[in-house]
Design a protein that fits this description.
The complex is a heterodimer. In chain A, 0% of the residues lie in helices and 52% in strands. Chain A has no helices and eleven strands. In chain A, the strands form two sheets. In chain A, strands 2, 4, 5, 6, 9, 10 and 11 form a seven-stranded mixed sheet that branches. A four-stranded antiparallel sheet of chain A has the order 1-3-8-7, with no helix packed on it. Chain A starts with a strand and ends with a strand. By secondary structure, chain B is an all-beta fold. The chains are: A mainly beta, B mainly beta. At the A-B interface, β4, β5, β9 and β10 of A face β5, β9 and β10 of B.
Chain lengths: 111, 109
């Protein structure tokens, strides 16, 4: 158990809809990272938050947004969903003087 | 920007040794990490190098040459359960982790 919790584990939704993925980092970790992993693809870095502030952006679409709350949990919002957004979405925490610890992921299926 | 290259697939025999290479180019280097990922599961940390040289952790070792932008992961005494994807990741100076596309390793009897 990495200590990083993601909910929900699975999500099925229709095109055009909006969903919210939630992540609770390991106790004491200030950084949260979001990644997208499509079928047979590598982990694509989306965005990093540190102690409530956006720290870095990767390949995140404008239809996607994220935030980190004062209790350090984070949410990734995906809107106007398309079939191509179907993927595993991972949250990770750590990274300062340690490796990144990954949650179990949310499998999003857009139908 | 970041550019990380790994072979897409490798096959090796149970009990043998396999080396998975990774080359990278980055605008700011702060460590090279190796993760293992089984299909549909979370990546799990294997090894990490921030200085040049070899780091050994049981059956797994990782090597880094910063001047060459090169790392490898060495897996010894291969077991069937080692069949998985192996991800090379560069930690940027801003503490973001950028991943290669992964090497799918198949261990055969």
């Amino acid at each position: 158990d990495s200590g990083v919790t993601q909910t929900p584990k699975h999500l099925i939704t229709a095109t055009g809809q909006r969903v919210t993925l939630r992540c609770s980092p390991r106790s004491g970790d200030l950084s949260v990272y979001w990644y997208q992993q499509s079928l047979d693809q590598g982990l694509q870095f989306l965005i990093q938050y540190y102690n409530g502030e956006e720290r870095a952006k990767g390949n995140i679409l404008e239809r996607f947004s994220a935030q980190q709350f004062p209790d350090l949990h984070s949410e990734l919002n995906l809107s106007s969903l398309e079939l191509g957004d179907s993927a595993l979405y991972f949250c990770a925490s750590g990274g300062g003087n340690t490796e990144a610890f990954f949650g179990q992921g949310t499998r999003l299926t857009v139908v | 920007g970041q550019n990380i290259d790994q072979p897409t697939e490798m096959t090796a025999t149970e009990g043998a040794i396999v080396q998975i290479n990774c080359t990278y180019q980055t605008s700011g280097f702060n460590g090279l990490f190796w993760y293992q990922q089984h299909a549909g599961e979370a990546p799990t940390f294997l090894s990490y190098n921030v200085l040049d040289g070899l780091e050994e952790k049981g059956r797994f070792s990782s090597f880094l040459s910063r001047s060459k932008g090169y790392s490898y992961l060495l897996l010894k005494e291969l077991q069937m359960k080692d069949s998985a994807s192996y991800l090379c990741a560069v930690r940027h100076t801003g503490n973001q982790f950028y991943f290669g596309t992964g090497t799918s390793l198949t261990v055969i009897p």
